[in-house]
Amino acid sequence: MDLLKSLISFALVAFITSVVLDRYAEQRSKLRVQDDAAFQLRVEALREFRRATMAYEVAALSAFVDLYQWQTMEKSATMLRYEQDTWSAWKAALEEVRFRQSDDPIVKEAVDRLTKAVEARHLIYDGFVNQHLDSKGAISIDPRPRRTEFDQLSQEIATYRAQIIERLETLVLQQPRRK
Question: Looking at the predicted structure, is the pLDDT value of residue 177 above 70?
């Protein structure tokens, strides 16, 4: 009888231990999946930020260069790509970074500086576009006087972009991951 009680006790304890350990392992597995998904989202946000900001920079310079030879009332395909496609992708990537790293003051400050520099540079470009369109193409625009300012802002933007990327890489690598 004592042997039977011992066997039943042992079986009950083994069963309870097995259930508890199984639930613990299942919970850890769920947390690991969540961590991996969050990590992948942060990596994807970084990747998209890199891609979109570089495409936007190339488009901004190309559109500014197009101003030198712009004669018609129609914007060039390069100008439209800068104003529409790459702008939208840039804005979406920036918002994703803001969302994913909203609690990091370094990223927030760098994103704010980047945004201000991009807006200032766009005002230079936009001023020439408005001048040309307001004159109905009668005035030939010359962007050379503001080229240095445009280039300086482009350099600032590149610096802020690099700072953001460096910080995002650091944050991605620092995020604790459960094993």
Answer: no
**Number of domains comprising the chain:** 1
Instruction: Give the CATH number for residue 99.
Output: 1.20.120
CB-count burial class (<10 Å; 0-12, 13-18, 19+) for 143: middle
pLDDT in tens, 34-78: 878 888 888 898 999 999 999 999 999 999 999 999 988 899 999
Give the Cα separation of 120 and 60 in Å (integer). 12
Q: Are 85 and 145 in contact (CB under 8 A)?
A: no
State the DSSP code for 24.
H
Residue closest to 78 by CA, chosen among 164, 21, 68:
68
Decide: 42 and 172 in contact? Cβ < 8 Å. yes
Secondary structure (DSSP) of 56-114: HHHHHHHHHHHHTT--SSSPPHHHHIIIIIHHHHHHHHHHHHHHHTTT-HHHHHHHHHH
Model confidence, pTM: 0.79
Which helix or strand (DSSP H or E) is residue 172 part of?
Answer: helix 147-174
DSSP-assigned states of every residue in 141-158: P--GGGHHHHHHHHHHHH
Place of tokens 């040309």: 132
Does a structural domain hold residue 5?
A: no
